[in-house]
Amino acid sequence: MPEDEVQAVAGNLLEALRFFGQARSDAEIRDLPGISLIFCGLNYAAFNAALQARPIQGDAEELNHLIDVSAEQFDARSLRWTYWLCEDFLNQPLRREAARIFKRHGLRHLTEAPGMYTDRLAPVTRELPVLDIRPVADEATRSAFSDVMSTAFEIPHSVSLSVYGSARAWQGTFQGYVGYSNGRAVTTAAAVITGDVIGLYSVATLPQHRRLGFAEAIMRQVIEQAQRSRGVSRMVLQATSSGFSLYEAMGYRTVTSFNVFIAD
Questions:
Q1: Block means of pLDDT (10 residues each) for the chain, length 264 residues?
Q2: Range of the domain at 62
């Protein structure tokens, strides 16, 4: 895949994950050589992340070193954590060996998230529902965002509220949106802009409102607004299995993949 497309996806993801490192007063971000470490302030693995920041130029020794550095930092705080690895940051031999390397370090493979890219959305092919879309800007919208995220992704409500409900969480580049239907919050999305790239994250819809077009409606409106106001021309995201077919239908294509390993 073209290197600039992979870098657009990986760079935007790194900026997005920094959200968790600034959401609470005890959260932290540490940018170390080759690796960025995100501490959310809670013992919740999904929000404590080590993200490889650049391709590995060497062999397995360099990957082992990055894992060791990450483990030392998180273990010192007795935190569960995840390591996000872009497959295009490894050469082919090291890519084949990676799972065994992580296993030796006590990390198991948790999930694979396709990194998707497009520079043009496909036309709308169905009638989308009307949504009242509000930016996350006050206690009510922060609470609504955290409620939808908690239900849609099965995040403990106290954890979701502690992160997404925090006013300081929304002072950076991570801009959240809540879609309301008939006065009820039913869907969410968040946008991160890096240069001419907009990444969409936290795309979630309450279970009883799925397959009705709410996710596509909020995504398209957020992107359209960013194109008008910020001049973005490229779009990226990390797909879940449940959202993959929608993103493909919207014109996104897979350009890389992120393997996520978790420390038990």
A1: 89 97 97 97 97 89 97 97 96 92 97 97 96 98 98 97 97 97 98 98 97 98 96 96 95 97 93
A2: 3-114
Question: Could you count the other beta carbons within 10 Å of the beta carbon of residue 233?
Answer: 12
Domain contains 121? no
Phi–psi pair at 77, nearest 5 degrees: -105, 5
Within 10 angstroms of residue 26's Cβ, the number of other Cβ atoms is 9
Q: Which residue has the tokens 């993103």?
A: 247
Same domain for 243 and 162? yes
Q: Which residues contact 79 (CB under 8 A, 6 or more apart)?
A: 39, 43, 45, 48
